[in-house]
Amino acid sequence: MYFPEYRLRRLRKDDNFRRLIRETNLLVDDLIYPMFVVPGKNVKKEIKAMPGIFQMSVDTALEEVREVESLGIPAVILFGIPEKKDEAATEAYAENGIVQTAIRAVKQANLSTLVVTDVCLCEYMSHGHCGVVQNGQILNDVTLELLANAANSHVEAGADMVAPSDMMDGRVAAIRSGLDHIGYNDTPIMSYAAKYASCFYDPFREAAESTPEFGDRRSYQMDPPNALEALREASLDIEEGADIIMVKPALSYLDVIYRVKEEFRYPTAAYNVSGEYSTIKAAAANGWINEERAVIEILTSIKRAGADMILTYHAKDAAQWLK
Ligand code: PBG
């Protein structure tokens, strides 16, 4: 049937009709809130390029996790900024490293929020790269052991899930076998499977103090024009034991989210990254955009593309708006 008999506007004219035919419902259940933990006490330092997001010491972070729990957000993902950085990323797998300490604090406080940890070395390396550097090259295979050590130290401290974001080849298998070896075969891995070398991470690097000292991350993160390669990345990570596969960033890669979800039908995450957040915050601060409507529209579009869960700095605001 066509116009004038069939009219799509019939089911748009009232909010109740719109609710009945709505295909995608964004829920607080879909959200994961990223947090940056730093050494010290009573620290709450706003990240300039990310208004509303702070570097926090463990005590302050704990209060924020409490808030996240009370908002009904299922999970946080922790990033650590260590006291000292070196060429072996020692603090990334130190028993009393910053992330390990934060995990223990959340677990001791008996909060039900899932604690996911980002597993990477860039925040802990003096040169800011995600792997071991030799003669200006980022070495893949020797990095794997350090990543596995970091993941092990996180789960031993109580992490509920680890999320490798380094983009070394073979790291999911290395982490899986590391976890299994120490008896954590029940702990899932959320792999940053298709992680692109994106300009949208710039504000994060201020937050995590992880800007590379030389060069960039293009020799290990994906080239933005490629989508089929993302399917190969996801397929390998699944083979290696990933439980959740992630596409990152989200907004310039909605097609990739869609393809990955269609191809594998695996639990799929998308990372609505720092630069995507900052862009909206800047426009909203200037009165150029309605922040609430923009955020809900964006997060809904990421879910509509196929994401089951969204890592987003907007999580706390979105949870309030979704009430
Ligand atoms: C660590 C890591 C990065 C992000 C998550 N994990 C930065 C990078 O790869 O440079 C970016 C997150 C964001 O921009 O919000 N490798």
Structure explained in plain terms:
The model has no long low-confidence stretch (mean pLDDT 97). The longest helix has 17 residues, at 141-157. With 323 residues, the protein is α/β, with parallel strands linked by helices. The protein has helices at 15-21, 58-70, 98-108, 141-157, 171-181, 202-208, 228-240, 254-264, 274-285, 291-305, 315-322; strands spanning 31-37, 44-47, 50-56, 75-80, 114-119, 132-134, 137-139, 161-164, 190-195, 244-248, 268-272, 309-312. Strand 4 (75-80), helix 3 and strand 5 (114-119) form a beta-alpha-beta unit. The protein starts with 14 loop residues before the first helix and ends with a helix. Strands 1, 2, 3, 4, 5, 8, 9, 10, 11 and 12 form a ten-stranded mixed sheet that branches. The chain is globular. The protein has one domain (23-322): Aldolase class I (TIM Barrel). Residues 118, 120, 122, 130, 165, 201, 204-205, 217, 273-274 line the site of ligand PBG.
